[in-house]
Amino acid sequence: MNNMLTLTALQPLWAELFMAMMVMGFLIFGVFKGDQSTRLLTFLGILGLFFVSVLLMNAPLGKEPLLGGMLVQDVFGRNVKLILVVALAVSYMLSLKYLYDTGFVKFEFPILILLAGLGMFLMVSAHHLLSFYMALELQSLSLYILAAFHRNSAKSAEAGIKYFILGALSSGLILFGISLLYGFTGVLDYTQLGQIIAELEGIEKTGVVFGMMFLMAGLAFKISAVPFHMWTPDVYEGASLPVTAFFALAPKLAALALLLRLLVGPFEALVTDWQMVIMFLSVMSMVWAAFAGLVQKNLKRLMAYSSIGNMGYALLGVVMLTTEGVTATFFYLMLYLIMVAGVFAVMLCMQRDGVVFKQIEDLAGLSKNHPKLAYAMALLMFSMSGIPPLSGFFGKMIVFQEVVAQEMYVLALVGVLTSVVAAYYYLRIIKVMFFDAPDMPYSKGFGVFRNGVIIVSVLFAVFYVLRPDALLPFARTTATDLLTPPAIIQTHDIQLDN
Amino acid sequence: MITPDMLPSLAFYGFAFILVVSALGVITAKNPVYSVLLLILAFFNAAGLFVLLGAEFVAMILVIVYVGAVAVLFLFVVMMLDVDFKSLRKGAMHYVPLGVLLGGVLLIELFVLFKARFGTEVFPQADTLPEISNTQQIGAVLYTDYIFAFQVAGLILLVAMIGAIVLTHRTRPNVRRQNVAKQNATTQEDAMEIQQVETGKGI
After folding, report:
1. How far is A323 from chain B (nearest CA, A)?
2. Is B184 inside a domain boundary?
3. Residue among B166, B170, B172 with most chain A CBs within 10 A, to mutate
4. Most buried of A5, A200, A377, B194, CB within 10 angstroms?
5. CA angle A381, A383, A388 (to 5 degrees)
């Protein structure tokens, strides 16, 4: 207990520390300079995130818990954080012009995104049920505020309240699960928890399984898997568009990483108990999202259902918990995130004099008024529905390949069938854009960032076929590291003596 | 005759009696302000019971958090909102049977718990008093083993503060605010105009 917290000892966590410093610095800067500093803060944020990624790349990685067993900085966490950094930077890029166009500039916006990002980083690294919960709350609280950020709109306030209440409910479930786990095992640390759970028998094991189920239900809220998805469409619809884009890009990945670390760590011994749950969540998400998406009229709601469905596909890879399965999950999510960034960038362009249009019918005749935008959207939609040779196809292919390899044919069948159903609503967007009577054109001048995101996203979708295994090694190292059992028995014994 | 070893029992009964009476007062007082004040009295007596159990940290937190913040907030709400408590009370008698039932169940539960756990002892006491106070014990781990959780809690509170300001603070353009610096910088020339008034003419 006499080890001092020196800056060098904290080197694995420099990225997180730097982010926290950025938050404080931005806050002071913003308070003095007022809301017009938002632009500068956003640029500084992108720059800072680049620096965070450099710190992450240089962080010493290992499975040893840091800060008294609270956190761990391993390859898995590092890789997920690198994806998160990109997602945060893209959110910054997409939000800036929108804030100024709609006249709702507040310097707290980039700060809250950064705080949510910090919460996600800590979630990914959490190695203790206490730090897990604290990090989750840091992230969730920032997200609630972001959802209600456009406070003059009743929809946004409603989204904020709804998200807050259901989020608090899920936090309650998680806390109840944690209290059951603590009651039956007496520890909170992942490593010790895993060791104790592996040896439990009878009624105590049942209690731990109950706790785990509550924990998983709470986390299913956060990744919005059916039947815990009901908040998603409303929050996506109510929150302002860049916030929705941010919600679609980052938080679910962090929550999924958190869930994965729990499932392969402390709950490894209970694999037969949670496997069915994950399978259920996955199948329900795929089926429900595919059919509910058919009747949506609002583009943001449609994207919400799309994200629910895609989480279902991603969870397919987790069911087996093989290296290849988790690889498929991460591979799928990365491809999905790149497409989603492009789709939201296109949606952000649909505005006329500061008024945003978000119904599917507002896309009518986009091919006449803005042909480039329409073709970009069309390619992204084809890609999302999984039509070869676009990138979305490869994501689905890898996932289904792995499901078939594990001889779970029913799951694969459900996945393929639901993706056919879901293709309808992606293709309907293309039909509306190209064959419906055109409306008035949207405001010109989409901004460098938006154009850049659209171009990168579309080029990626189109030319991914040339290097179809480009992101696979990255996903594979992530999955391999996650599934490597930690060899830290010695440090753990020392901790027990304290 | 009161002997020193009777003092803990005496203190317990004193605190417990006032606690129960003031708690009764909270729900029976006609004036809601009295209810809140009695609630504060109940909190203080509960804090006294915690001190008797050797949990002085919880006692202080109870006083600081519940009396200092929560009860005062209640008082604000009661005084500032124009709630018609008479009409709220009107249907209350309907709920008496349900209330009696729930209260009875709770009483039986408490009785069973009391029999099962404590047997013949009058009230529980800490077995042995620890050598250092529990405030020190919490402090010893809070800033070492749990420094991370402590810091993140700070960040969460920061988020809550930012959120409260973002969601409620509005800048209204036509409000006259006091600007102390401007007031202090005002000179005689800014505020006053000296005119020579000619006799019999006025300004």
Report:
1. 32
2. no
3. B166
4. A377
5. 135
